[in-house]
Design brief:
The protein is α/β, with parallel strands linked by helices and 131 residues long. It is built from four helices and four strands, in the order H-E-H-E-H-E-H-E. A four-stranded parallel beta sheet has the order 1-2-3-4, covered by helices on one side. Helix 4 (101-118) links the parallel strand 3 and strand 4. It is globular. The termini are far apart.
């Protein structure tokens, strides 16, 4: 039985080595998520031979408040957009504090869907989103 190549296998088969070093950026190292800044940063990274592969973000949902939860989710959504703009494959969210997991899970599920639409993978550490 023969198996047909996957999309990844087809894409990789046509690859050749590149002289770029993948790097992991932290959200705290970004001055802003404004497009002009991100465009300049992306260009400078490329000029130095770096390709952003991951964007790591620390998140806190320490208040049991819907407004505070939405504000943090909005901040994360902005960072997912920034990561997609920079060309990262993964946005890694490290959740440091959660006061009410039941309030946070729907926000993170929506964020995961947004990341998928932006073409990046969302990885969440510190809270099981599917529970």
């Amino acid at each position: 039985m023969s198996t047909s190549p996957t999309h990844v296998e087809n894409a990789v088969a046509a690859c050749r080595p590149s002289n770029v070093e993948p790097v992991e950026l932290t959200a705290s190292s970004l001055s802003t998520t404004a497009p002009d800044y991100l465009r300049e940063l992306k260009g400078e990274l490329a000029a130095e031979g770096y390709q952003p592969a991951e964007l790591t973000v620390s998140a806190r949902f320490s208040e049991d408040c819907s407004i505070a939860t939405q504000e943090e989710a909005d901040r994360l959504r902005d960072l997912v957009r920034a990561g997609a703009f920079l060309g990262v494959g993964v946005v890694r969210v490290d959740i440091e504090d959660v006061s009410n997991p039941e309030k946070v899970r729907p926000a993170l599920s929506a964020l995961e869907e947004r990341a998928r639409r932006e073409g990046v993978t969302l990885s969440v550490d510190g809270l099981d989103v599917s529970a």
